[in-house]
Design goal:
Elements (H helix, E strand, L loop, with lengths): L1 E4 L4 H10 L5 E4 L17 E4 L7 H9 L4 E4 L9 H6 L3 E3 L6 H16 L2 H9 L17 E5 L3 H11 L4 E5 L5 H7 L2 E2 L2 H7 L2 E4 L13 H6 L4 E5 L8 H10 L2 E6 L21 H8 L3 E3 L8 H19 L19 H6 L2
Parallel strand pairs: 1-2, 1-3, 3-4, 4-5, 6-7, 6-9, 7-8, 9-10, 10-11, 11-12
Helix pairs in contact: 1-12, 4-6
The structure holds nicotinamide-adenine-dinucleotide.
GO molecular function, one term: D-lactate dehydrogenase (NAD+) activity
Family: Belongs to the D-isomer specific 2-hydroxyacid dehydrogenase family.
Keywords: NAD, Oxidoreductase
């Protein structure tokens, strides 16, 4: 069986090749999946996609025409896949839910520390042989109150790490994780209370119709003056325009993000020689108290290996007509997504 891997990056090839223990025919293309490139899937049995690929209804209809019956998402987030349409067309979709929560959690902590201790500014200055520290005054993470929005796998890892910094921890989630309460003294609260009481707010929710623009002007107004917001989840969970307004007013003291609302076709590519016509991104990148990384939180050797191994397990399971553990229910991310509770296994 042929597996076409869209949006293949050089760094992941060797992991995909070595995890392909059943010798499926792998066709790795750099193109991302879209209406313009979907024809590349002709003749394949399985399509493997990443976060920037387009698996919306019109693309899925084309895939169905080419007799594709399985989509392997090599990521946790599946907000770019129309699950209902896929189910209606008889296309099974599976993701990789648990490949390395600590990869993303540690990146979130890295953003926090880099911002709170002004490490990027220090780097820029020392590169120019400027060793003054007058503008490098930071704060400790120790004893800060951190609001963890989404206490699933990644939020739990963040909780565990931050408890080592003796932070006061507030959690927000539709499902309480009792272990985090007993083990790390995390207190659950509603989002408004979390916003009001946190020095740092870190986002670890999926993007869906209920979480889109969850962090908006109204929520930012509740936050503490000089709050730090960290987003390693999905760009669309925050309203970027409102974040910029918050930064301009000084309400948001720091913003660290590994994701961006309009990152598609921008992140993962080198645009240093071309002009990116995106005023919002340009504005964000102009602030010294903002640190943007290019959706790299997942990019560790450990994560890439786990992703590749899980993908082939998923595909082989499906090929043997067995129900794989990571098949996505069409109701996920909708008003009826209580099904998520079952799959969380917290
Ligand atoms: P998870 O499913 O384990 O946890 C998500 C949590 O969000 C769950 O506890 C769930 O109950 C909660 N939740 C969902 N919708 C909610 C709502 N409307 N209100 C309150 N709580 C809600 O997922 P995870 O593995 O922790 O990943 C979280 C997100 O991180 C992913 O969906 C993905 O978008 C993002 N992610 C980013 C990267 C990266 O490289 N930057 C890598 C992996 C995952």
């Amino acid at each position: 069986m042929k597996v076409i891997v869209f949006s293949t990056r050089e760094f992941e090839k060797k992991y995909l090749i070595s995890a392909n223990t059943t010798s499926l025919e792998l066709v790795m293309v750099t193109e991302s999946l879209s209406l313009n490139t979907v024809h590349l899937a002709k003749g394949a049995g399985v399509v493997c996609i990443f976060t920037g690929d387009d698996a919306s209804a019109p693309v899925l209809v084309k895939l169905k025409e080419y007799n594709i019956k399985y989509i392997a998402v090599r990521a946790t987030g599946f907000d770019h896949v129309d699950l209902k349409k896929a189910a209606a067309l008889g296309i099974t979709v599976a993701n990789v839910p648990d490949y390395s929560p600590f990869s993303i959690a540690e990146h979130a902590i890295g953003l926090m520390l880099a911002l709170i201790r002004k490490l990027t500014l220090a780097y820029q200055q020392t590169q120019r042989y400027n060793f003054k520290i007058d503008n490098l005054l930071g704060s400790t993470l120790h004893h800060k109150t951190v609001g963890i929005v989404g206490t699933g796998k990644i939020g739990s890892a963040v909780t565990q790490i931050l408890s080592g910094f003796d932070c006061n921890l507030i959690g927000y989630d539709k499902i309480r994780n009792e272990q985090l309460i007993s083990k790390y003294q995390l207190h659950y609260a509603d989002l408004k209370t979390l916003c009001k009481n946190s020095d740092i707010i870190t986002l670890h929710l999926p993007l869906n119709e209920r979480t889109e623009y969850l962090i908006n002007k109204e929520m930012i107004d509740f936050m503490r003056q000089g709050v730090m917001i960290i987003n390693t989840a999905r760009g669309g969970i925050v309203n970027t325009q409102d974040i910029i307004e918050g930064i301009e007013k000084g309400k948001i003291g720091y913003y660290g993000a590994d994701v961006y609302e309009h990152e598609k076709d921008v992140f993962f590519y080198d645009h240093s020689e071309k002009k990116v016509n995106d005023p919002l991104l340009k504005k964000l990148l102009s602030y010294s108290n903002v640190l943007i990384t290019p959706h790299q939180a997942f990019a560790t050797k450990e994560a890439l290996n786990n992703i590749a191994v899980t993908i082939f397990k998923n595909i082989n399971c499906w090929a043997l007509q067995q129900k794989g553990p990571h098949e996505l229910h069409p109701d996920l991310g909708t008003e009826n997504d209580n099904i998520e509770q079952e799959s969380l296994n917290l």
